Amino acid sequence: MRTYRSLLKHGVVRRWLPRVAACLVAAVVVGVLFSSWRVGVTAGAAALVGFIVYTSQRQSEVPQWRKPSSAQRRTEAQLRIMQRFGYRVLHARRIQDGNGQIDHFIVGRRGAFAIDSEAWDKRLPLRNKLEKLYHGRFSKNERIDEALAEARNAERLISEELGRPIKVRAALAIYGPSMPWDSHRLRGVDIIVGTKVRKWLRSGKDRLTEEEIEEIYQAAKKVLPPMY
Q1: Model's pTM, two decimal places?
Q2: Buried residues in 1-36 as b, exposed as e (16+ CB within 10 A)
Q3: Are strands 189-193 and 168-175 parallel, antiparallel or unpaired?
Q4: Does domain 64-223 have CATH number 3.40.1350?
Q5: Residue 130, phi-psi category: left (phi > 0), alpha (psi -120 to 50), beta (remainder)
Q6: What is the mean pLDDT of the chain?
Q7: Which CA distances in Å does 64 have to 59, 227, 228?
Q8: Would you kindly state where each structural domain of the chain is located, as residue ranges?
Q9: For residue 119, what are the β-bridge partners?
Q10: Measured at the alpha carbon of residue 151, what is the angle toward residues 146 and 154, in degrees to the nearest 5?
Q11: What digits encode the pLDDT tens for the residues 26-80?
């Protein structure tokens, strides 16, 4: 357990002091304006909740992802909620004997998943034409194939570690451009709206037990080392 001194050392208290002070100021100002200490307390509490929600969206288990515009961080925030329902999650994992990185490896009751998160220009439309994905006039098939190769490598490595075959479902979570679908399977990869990651995870067809989830998670931790 962290001590008060360790909290100061890590800057946690110092980061929160200005926010708490702002909440107190808001409480006093609103209370004076409405001549009600109850209204003031409510305003201060609401401001504090807002700070907590905003901070939780910015926090990341991977320090390199703390950039506010990071697509990986936005997906990570959604996966943090799924962890409350028994899903196990790994972020920024490297393929030992291959190229590329799996942004998010997830295993839960509905199966095992490998998601890469992408932020693309929202001004350009996203469309599927003859089994090819275009972002504006630019083909994204190479990126889709990379995501599939990463998932297949993870599938092979984990299966070898467990001594039995498992399936890993590949996906690209896209933030930015509008899409005519929540998720669409193309070239063996699910192309999903970035904000619909949780909904997509619940669409898995597998039915894993808690023991199987833990086995796959531990195997993935071993054969997919962290990037950072």
Answers
A1: 0.72
A2: eeeeeeeeeeeeeeeeeebeeebeebbeebbeeeee
A3: parallel
A4: yes
A5: left
A6: 81
A7: 11, 10, 8
A8: 4-58, 64-223
A9: 175
A10: 125
A11: 666 666 676 776 766 676 677 666 655 454 444 555 555 545 447 899 999 999 9
